[in-house]
Design brief:
Largest sheet: 5 strands, parallel
Number of helices: 12
Radius of gyration: 25 Å
CATH topology: Rossmann fold
Strand content: 5-15%
Oligomer: single chain
Strand order of the largest sheet: 2-1-3-4-5
CATH class: Alpha Beta
Helix content: 40-55%
Distance between the termini: 101 Å
Length: 351
Amino acid sequence: MSGAPIAEASPKPVQPSYLLAFLGSLLGMFALYYGVLLTLSATGNLPPPAFSNSLCVDEKLRFLRDEQPGSPTLLVVGSSVAWRHFDGDTLLRKAPDLKPLNGAFCGLRVNQTGFAADWLLDHYPMVREVVMVASPQDFENCTSHPTAFLDRGDIDDYVFDRVTPWFYYTRYFSFVSLARNAATIGDKRSGVNRIDPLVFDRFGSGPLGAEGGRGQLLYGAVDKPDPACLSALSQLASRVHGEGRRLMVAMTPLHPQWRAQHDPDGAVLGRFSSGIRAALGESGARYWDSNLSFAADEEEFFDAIHLRWTGVPRFTAALLQAFDIPGAESPSDSRARIVLNPPPLGVTGND
C-alpha cells in the first residue's frame, strides 16, 4: 500500500497553568500540614518525630535532645524495665560523685538494646559504669526484631546536633501514627494516662503507677533465651570490657503470681540466668538475678514485670549494693540481702 508516511503526532507542551496549579497544590498541602503541626505544638499535643514509630521511644529521643545530659558517668540501658526501675536520686544519695543517665528505651529486645547502648556510649565517653536491667521477655525473638531500629545519622542530627525537627515530620510522615499519637500525647506527658505515662524525671527514668497497678499480669510464659539475644549481649559485654568500662546485668523482679504460674520451681529463670552468664563469659561483666534475693511485695508491682515507682528506690538501692557501685551502702531493709552471680552448684554469696 503506497502513500505518504503518516507523521507522528508531536507531544503537546505542558501548559504553564498546569505546572502552576500542581506546584500550588503541593505548596498548599505542605502549608496545611505544617499548619496542623504548629497548631498541635501550640496546644501541647505535638508528638515527637516518628523516628521509630514507637511513641515512647521517640519521646525518649525528644527528652535527650531537650535535656542534653552532659557527661554522665553511669549509663542505664535496656527496655521498659530499665527505664521504669531506676531511681537516680537514690543513687546520688549513696554515690554522690556519680552522674547517672537512664538511656533505656521501651519495648526493646536485647539486640536492640545493644544498638542503643553502642550509640549512647559513642556520644558519652565519660561513662564508666553500664547497668542493664532486663526481663526474660527482652531475651526472646531477637531474630525477628531489627537490631538497627533507628537511623543513627538522623538521630545524631536530631539529638546531639539539635537540627530543626520539622524536616523529620515530613521524612517520617504517617497520617495514622500522627493522628493517634496527637490524640494521646498530652495525657501521657502529663501523667493523666496512668497506664502508659510518658513522664521523665531529670535522669531520664519513667516513674510508673504511683497509685494502683494494671490490674492484670499481662505478660505470659517464657521458655528460654533466643541465642541471637545472647550473642548480642556477648558483643555488648566485649565492647564495654574492651574500653575499660564495667557492665552489670540485672534480671528485674518478677511478680510472685507470675513466678507461681509460669516458673514454680525456678527452672525457667535458671535457664535464662545460665544463658546470660555464659554470654558474659570472661568479659568481667557481672550478673544479678534479683529474684533470688530481692523480696518485692505484690503491691509493689504494676504488672508481671514492672514495679510501681514506690518500690523502685528500694530496688535501686539493692542494685547498687549487688554491683558494689562506688559509695553504695547496704539497704536498711533486711529483705534486700543480695546474692550476686550464684554459681551453678547452688552456692550463694557476694563475689
